[in-house]
Design goal:
About 40% of the residues lie in helices and about 20% in strands. The chain has helices at about 20-35, 45-55, 60-75, 90-110, 115-130, 150-155, 180-205, 280-285; strands at about 1-5, 10, 40, 75-80, 135-140, 150, 220-225, 235-245, 250-260, 260-270, 275. Among the domains are: about 1-90, no CATH class; about 220-285, no CATH class. The radius of gyration is 22 Å and the shape is globular. The protein is an alpha+beta fold and about 280 residues long. The strands form four sheets. It has a five-stranded antiparallel sheet, with no helix packed on it. A two-stranded antiparallel ribbon has the order 1-2. A two-stranded parallel ribbon has the order 3-4.
Length: about 280
Amino acid sequence: MFSCMCSRAVHIEVIEAMSTSSFINALRRFFAVRGPAKQIRSDCGTNFIGASRDLEMVKTNPGFNSVEEYLHTQGCTWVFNPPHASHMGGAWERMIGIARRILDCMLLEQRRSHLTHEVLTTLMAEVAAIMNARPLIPVSSDPESLLILTPATLLTLKTGSTPPPPPSGSYQEAHLIREEWKRVQGLADTFWNRWKHEYLKTLQLRHKWQGKRQNLQEGDIVLLKDNQAKRNQWPTGIITKTLPGDDGLVRKIQVEVVKDGTRKSFSRPVTEVVLLLSPKSDSAN
């Protein structure tokens, strides 16, 4: 998995073998699709040392020189973080950690049936599309133009996300589906449902309510936790009304969402929304 330090986009490559040749081919495919990179960064922990041995990239093996020479000819350098400093790669470690936990659970459930190369590569493309559709920061506070900036927007220069294929039966029992494209969509839906919950946890920290925190305010832009939303869709809205309790704490809000030119208003508890931008607080600071 490659993660861009500028756009925060991810790119996933499937390799056939843990060899230097497969590793260089993966880099070549990455450069061919995304363009050349000036620098590659990675950690130097025990897990990477073990992987580098499997990739024959340790300096005692001749494969290391071939990879180093290839990167040099491509005008690219490889920088290793110090050992025991995984926090220095937090920008990509968080994405890798979440995706790996979900994929590990999913692939363990698929042990009875083998995934073909076509299914696996298509699934990884769907996974990358889901991860690149995550919101980064809202562009506008206009309730009629709630455009969310995503890594996919920066890559394609297009708004919106790739819609899922039209429903054709149930994709839930992915391991029982004989048609490969339906099986891929079932696995992609499973990843989306798990990814949505795992990623939202990183946006909204749940501390014990032992101290007062700033209430949500009218005009704040929030992300709704909608279980009925389709894949790659992150419903966003603007708070139109807050309903504080007797103690002055806001636990219930009114949220307005604009979709396809239609305005809809919803009543939600504060636990079901994630604050993205607070114009009033930013202007006050």
